[in-house]
User: What shape does this take?
Amino acid sequence: MPSNPYPLNLTLYDTDGSTVQVSKLITARNETTAETISETTDGSGQVILDLANLTSSYTNSDVITIYSVDGDKTVYVQHTVDTSVGSYTTSLTYIDTSVTDSTELRYFTASEFREFFNMDSYNATSSPAGIKTEQIERIGVGVELEIDRITRSKFDDNSGSYYTATNEYHDAKWLSQRDFFSKYGPIVSVTKFEVNSEAEGETADWTNLAESDYSDYWSYDADTGRFRIENSAYYPPKGPKQVRLTYTYGVSSTPKDIKHLAMLMTAREMATAGLMSLAIKGTQMEGSGGSINILQSMDRQIERLLNIRMRTIATNA
Assistant: This one.
């Protein structure tokens, strides 16, 4: 083993990249031998760790992990020993690893997910078995879209803008049909409730009942999405695409059952992916029977929540 010094010249900064960090422990670990050395930074935020002081010293091309953890702040870098250079100098800047909630998720946050399932946030050194916000986001966004599809709704207000359905067409399935149901809901506002007065095959002639001149000729129910023509003179002829709607929809806050459902479905997808990964790698899945039982239990909870939500929608309709 080389006995020559191999100093790691390190300067540690706070998350702003400019404030030096005093009296903070920095550790260097030789990944070949798993041996470590540690020192605290001086008044200038600096420290020198000499790899020659490792019990087994070092060899060329050893990978050295350098890290420091201070509460929710951490820094983690790796260096490959190059004996032709004989030293390594770098600056380290803390990263705040406290839970940062995804802005992509609409029905729950990453911190709510971790709290619900009693999980830690991923940290390469302090909690390598934790879960990454990015993983929660990637799976959770897909789950939320699936909930939207199943329920034909969106359970948030889109940052106050809500969601818009534009030129949503509906068929007149019989003569004198006066009720038409929107594809999505609950309804927040209506821009157009247009009725075609011409028969199928003729040039369309649209009247927008949502305009002020026709305020007594129509109504709608925000919860059920039912649009009603109140004046028989405006009943459309039977045929396809005789009514079209433009409206906004959504809710001001996410219902608890939807939040619970979204988190359960996300966890279910994660668990399934984990089992599939083990199977693909050919890893023997000890206790897989218990895992399958847990998945089945989650399936029952998901089904129950979906049934309750769909019954609520059906009752309102």
Notes: The helical segments are 110-116, 133-151, 256-281, 288-316. The chain has three domains: 7-96, 110-152+254-316, 163-249.
